[in-house]
């Protein structure tokens, strides 16, 4: 053991005695500038008197007690929380300072100073590094799992006060611990996965890019679509299915749906919704008049703006005609029906129903009629006319069979009364005309055919008496209906009455006169000319298929027609648009002369018919009837 270490182990009193009596003078070099505890005192001489020796002993004892008290006060831990264990670097620094001391005296003094310095330094670090107890445990736990440290850094909370000096000291102390690689791993940057190589397949990335939402606009749109889908689901769940009793929840849901369908955005959302067609399920079991009116309003609004084949199929599967047949019988205004006590409808419900009614009246659906009231009959007829035009012929036949009882009753009531100014009359004509276009004549009972043709004859007679009218669309629709229904003998026979034939003759003569005067005044109206052509076609069908109709016209009426036709030969070329109408008139005169063989045949009549045949041969070959007419007229000569 070195003298320095032996000196450290000796009691402090013995060290002081040696220093004062000069015992270790031979082992130390005299140096007047020694550092440490003895630097502030002068060197004590070897010749000391006994009295002085006793005084020195007394002072030495006092000094020993004071020094021990100072050292004990230094080594005594402060009244603070327990500090960390003494760091190895501090112990090594103290040992290095002791080894570098030149003499035992200086070593003693330096040791005292070193102990004081170490104690003060430990005390300082205990005061500064107090939060290190909280950090030590997580670090050691993290050291047990290095894979976790590779993915994340050590996190500090706001309860810990840190500084740059403290962090440097902690990093220096951690280098001498048993975990040399732990702090290195913590200080390393987070390892990120390597970038994909160009050889990887990009199909998965393309798929992710297609599915992922790339912008905030798409995110908003997706959220809006989800909200709208939930809104439609909520409405459909509230509407539910028809029941035996009227439901206020169902009525309110139908009112809300009919109101929202007025908006184009909601219309598109409802069109694209997967459960949209559920609204038509069980519709033939609907017995509530108000719910039925609202359902019809929803279908009218939707089908007037969109085409929905699946919805139409759902309606035909659920026999929509049976439900419409019940609504056709309801003629009272819907708001008046809702005001009845038996309707059991709240004030808010009646207000919502009135709003739906007002929205429907503002739509361009009513053929130019200005409506103030809207009944279940009117809305059901409007829906029926739309369905007849949209469905295929087979479904139209099923639909009309389901509504035949109520619709035929309504048609007969219009035929008896002059109801041409009512929108229900116009809708009835539209339904009949659409039926005549979409379906082929079926083998129906003769009584049914006669009843239908009798009503059509009444409609035609009423229209011809006031022709031309301002409502050209309804007049033209009725004339088309008459042409479509008079192309066979059974149906044409219903129009062979003398009154109707006389009305046709009067309309023909007045129509040609109106068209000629309009041409001369440069005010040609195509509507009147088109309707004149339809009237000529009706008369040709009746005279062609019914021989008795040829004799029902009087001779003076034939003379009027001949005079009208003779004017055309002098002023109008047969190739012009009006010339085709004069060719139709020539064909009518040909059939009339077959019924009145005693009358002289005009000289240019047969060549005019033959010329029309030659023109039609270039278009189609349907000229057999006209060729037979020419042959019959030639024999009359």
Determine the structural class based on helices, strands and strand pairing. mainly alpha
Report low-confidence residues grouped into runs of 5 or more: 1-57, 67-78, 104-146, 174-183
Average pLDDT level: 74
Query: Whole-number radius of gyration?
Result: 58 Å
Shape: elongated
**Beta-strand level of the residues, as a percent range?**
under 5%
* Major sheet summary line: none
Number of strands: 0
* Fraction of residues in H or I helices: 55-70%
Distance separating the two termini: 166 Å
Pfam families: WAPL
Organism: Hypocrea virens (strain Gv29-8 / FGSC 10586) (Gliocladium virens)
Protein name: Wings apart-like protein C-terminal domain-containing protein
Family: Belongs to the WAPL family.
SSE layout:
Layout (H helix, E strand, L loop, with lengths): L2 H7 L2 H10 L28 H26 L12 H12 L4 H25 L3 H12 L2 H6 L12 H11 L5 H8 L15 H9 L4 H24 L8 H13 L3 H9 L16 H17 L3 H9 L2 H9 L5 H6 L7 H15 L14 H15 L2 H10 L1 H13 L6 H16 L7 H20 L6 H14 L3 H4 L5 H23 L5 H20 L9 H17 L5 H19 L9 H13 L6 H13 L1
Family: Belongs to the WAPL family.
Organism: Hypocrea virens (strain Gv29-8 / FGSC 10586)
InterPro entries: ARM-like, WAPL, WAPL_C
Report on this model:
It comes from Hypocrea virens (strain Gv29-8 / FGSC 10586). Belongs to the WAPL family. With 637 residues, the protein is mainly α. The chain has three domains: 3-77 and 86-128, no CATH class; 213-440, no CATH class; 446-637, Leucine-rich Repeat Variant. Helix content is 67%, strand content 0%. 26% of the residues are buried.
């Amino acid at each position: 053991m070195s003298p320095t270490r032996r000196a450290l182990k000796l009691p402090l009193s013995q060290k002081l005695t040696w220093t004062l009596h000069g015992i270790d003078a031979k082992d130390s070099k005299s140096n007047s500038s020694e550092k440490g505890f003895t630097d502030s005192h002068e060197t004590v001489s070897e010749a000391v008197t006994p009295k002085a020796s006793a005084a020195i002993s007394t002072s030495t004892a006092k000094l020993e007690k004071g020094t021990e008290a100072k050292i004990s006060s230094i080594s005594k831990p402060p009244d603070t929380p327990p500090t960390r264990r003494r760091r190895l670097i501090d112990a090594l620094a103290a040992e290095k300072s002791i080894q570098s001391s030149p003499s035992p005296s200086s070593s003693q003094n330096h040791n005292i100073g070193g102990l004081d310095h170490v104690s003060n330094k430990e005390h300082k670090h205990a005061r500064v590094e107090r939060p290190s107890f909280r950090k030590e445990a997580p670090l050691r736990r993290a050291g047990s799992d290095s894979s976790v440290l590779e993915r994340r850094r050590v996190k500090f909370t706001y309860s810990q006060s840190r500084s740059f000096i403290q962090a440097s000291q902690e990093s220096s102390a951690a280098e001498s611990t048993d975990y040399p690689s732990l702090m290195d791993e913590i200080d390393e940057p987070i390892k990120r996965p390597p970038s994909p190589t160009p050889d990887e397949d990009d199909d998965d990335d393309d798929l992710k890019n297609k599915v992922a939402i790339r912008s905030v606009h798409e995110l908003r749109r997706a959220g809006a679509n989800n909200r709208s889908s939930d809104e439609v689901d909520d409405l459909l769940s509230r509407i539910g299915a028809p029941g035996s009793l009227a439901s206020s929840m169902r009525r309110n849901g139908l009112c809300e749906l009919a109101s929202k369908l007025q908006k184009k955005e909601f219309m598109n959302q409802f069109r694209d919704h997967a459960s949209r067609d559920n609204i038509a399920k069980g519709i033939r079991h609907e017995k509530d008049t108000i719910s039925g009116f609202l359902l019809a309003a929803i279908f009218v609004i939707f089908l007037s703006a969109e085409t929905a084949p699946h919805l139409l199929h759902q309606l035909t599967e659920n026999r929509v005609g049976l439900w419409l047949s019940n609504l056709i019988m309801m003629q009272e205004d819907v708001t008046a029906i809702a005001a009845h006590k038996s309707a059991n409808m709240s004030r808010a419900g009646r207000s919502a129903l009135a709003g739906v009614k007002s929205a429907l009246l503002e739509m361009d659906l009513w053929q130019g009629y200005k409506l103030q009231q809207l009944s279940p009959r009117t809305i059901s007829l409007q829906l029926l006319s739309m369905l007849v035009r949209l469905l295929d012929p087979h479904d139209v036949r099923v639909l009309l069979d389901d509504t035949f009882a109520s619709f035929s009753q309504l048609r007969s009531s219009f035929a008896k009364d002059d109801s041409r100014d009512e929108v229900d009359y116009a809708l009835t004509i539209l339904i009949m005309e659409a039926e005549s276009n979409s379906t082929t004549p079926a083998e129906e009972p003769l009584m049914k055919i006669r009843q239908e043709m009798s009503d059509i004859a009444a409609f035609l007679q009423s229209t011809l008496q006031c022709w031309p009218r301002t409502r050209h669309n309804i007049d033209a629709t009725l004339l088309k209906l008459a042409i479509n229904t008079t192309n066979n003998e059974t149906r044409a026979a219903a129009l062979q009455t003398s009154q109707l034939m006389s009305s046709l003759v009067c309309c023909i003569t007045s129509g040609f006169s109106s068209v000629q005067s309009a041409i001369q005044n440069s005010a040609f109206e195509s509507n009147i000319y088109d309707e004149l052509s339809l009237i000529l076609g009706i008369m040709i069908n009746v005279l062609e298929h019914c021989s008795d109709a040829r004799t029902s016209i009087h001779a003076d009426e034939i003379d009027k027609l001949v005079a009208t036709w003779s004017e055309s030969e002098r002023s109008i070329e047969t190739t012009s648009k009006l010339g085709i109408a004069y060719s139709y008139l020539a064909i009518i005169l040909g059939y009339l002369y077959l019924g009145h063989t005693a009358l002289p045949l005009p000289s240019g009549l047969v060549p005019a018919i033959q010329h029309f045949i030659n023109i039609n041969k270039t278009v189609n070959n349907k000229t057999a009837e006209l060729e037979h007419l020419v042959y019959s007229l030639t024999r009359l000569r």
